[in-house]
Amino acid sequence: MEQPQESVYNLIPQPIVVQEKPPMYRSRHPGVVPAQKKSAATMGPACVPLNGTANFTKKVDRSLPSPQRFQYTETVPRRSPVPKRTEQPLMGLTTDKNFIVANAVETILSAPKKTAEAPTDYTQKANYGQVPRYLHRIRGELQAERDMVAGALERSQSTSEDHVRMLSEQERTEVLAGLRATREKLNKDYQTISFTLDTPAKRQRKERLEAQIDQVDQDIRKMSHNYLFVQEQF
């Protein structure tokens, strides 16, 4: 807690402020209310006349309504009653109907069900019999890759000072594995950054890690191609 500062002005006696007492509150309504008490009154107006204290239902009171037989008014047909134990069930009923033959005849003579929608005819499509667009795109990518390889070979043959060679699959796999390990380490370091970047050092470290991760991602995409050429200096 902050302590008050010392000053010579604190030695000057301050005048005593006397608080004025407000006037006493008095209601504007008169203080005398005439009594309007009713006999056997309750909280609020009574909706029904109240019974006296001696007027209650006695044990031998016959004023209750007489009981009447309950009548069902449901229109749902009731199930057949449970057979009595003295009733004998029908036994020995047999039939000469061949259910297998009857079912086969019924299936043969029955009309096929009509479907709500007609079957789809794929031969009526607008692009039926045409080469899909994605095949054209893949064909263009393959042709561009072949052109790139051919151009790289021509440049390597025409250059006398620099030598260009294609990386082997083993070298490409090793470099790609190293890049992925570096990407995982950078991502692990990035996950340890606190959410609150309240200092310049934390912000610089976050930006540096993000730039490194972006660069490694670009290198991984480049190394994912099948044909890679490197330039060697002699």
Secondary structure: elements and pairs:
Layout: H1 99-109, H2 133-158, E1 162-166, H3 169-191, H4 200-223, E2 229-233
Helix pairs in contact: 3-4
Your description of this structure?
The chain is mainly alpha-helical and 234 residues long. The chain is built from 4 helices and 2 strands. It has helices spanning 99-109, 133-158, 169-191, 200-223, and strands spanning 162-166, 229-233. The protein has a two-stranded antiparallel ribbon with strand order 1-2. The longest helix has 26 residues, at 133-158. The radius of gyration is 51 Å and the shape is flat. The mean pLDDT is 81.
Q: What is the straight-line distance between the termini?
A: 76 Å
- The radius of gyration is 51 Å
| Helical coverage, percent range | 25-40%
Mean pLDDT value: 81
**Inertia-based shape:** flat
Q: What order do the helices and strands follow?
A: HHEHHE
Q: Tally the helices: what do you get?
A: 4
Biggest sheet features: 2 strands, antiparallel
- List the quaternary state of the chains: single chain
Which class of secondary structure composition applies to the elements? mainly alpha
Biggest sheet, spatial arrangement of strands: 1-2
